[in-house]
Description:
Blueprint: E1 8-14, H1 19-28, E2 32-34, E3 37-44, E4 47-54, E5 59-64, H2 72-75, E6 80-83, E7 85-86, E8 89-90, E9 92-93, H3 95-103, E10 112-113, E11 124-127, E12 136-143, E13 147-154, E14 157-164, E15 168-170
Parallel strand pairs: 3-10
Antiparallel strand pairs: 1-5, 1-6, 1-9, 2-5, 3-4, 7-8, 11-12, 11-15, 12-13, 13-14
Amino acid sequence: MKPEAAERWYAVSCKPRQETVAEENLQRQGFQVYLPRIRIRHRRRGQWLDVVEALFPRYVFIRIDPRQRSTAPVRSTRGVLGLVRFGGQPAVVPDAVMEALQQREDAASGMHEDTRAQFSAGEQIKIVEGPLAGMEGVFTQQDGEKRVILLLDLLGKANKVKVDRDWIARAA
Length: 172
């Protein structure tokens, strides 16, 4: 029979938008902390920006052996609400799950990349820049890295039009 590993991963619940604060303060206390991050494209004030966010908003993970070190300081750490618990017991996150998360990170940046499509087929969009700005249409598909294909009603007929991906936004 294999001896049970003493150190385990636990999920820590954080205050809203305080994951980084919790990470820093837990690390200062000597805890091994993992905060998976993801790079996402958002449109803000008319500009597309790459934004880094927590992959799991309001959660970080710590690795600890509760038999060797008390988890009591965790709940009083700035930015932290406490350990995630089920039935009064701290919830253990399997090592395989944590390893899979870490393996999916980009080696160079340490970030997870958002591979989801920004728009889905059939979604109503509005062109916000370029010569067709103000027109609304239907997203059909991505056409390469920077272009998309839309269906626009031009001259009483649905026409496929290719435009820059950064020129469109979801219709309100």
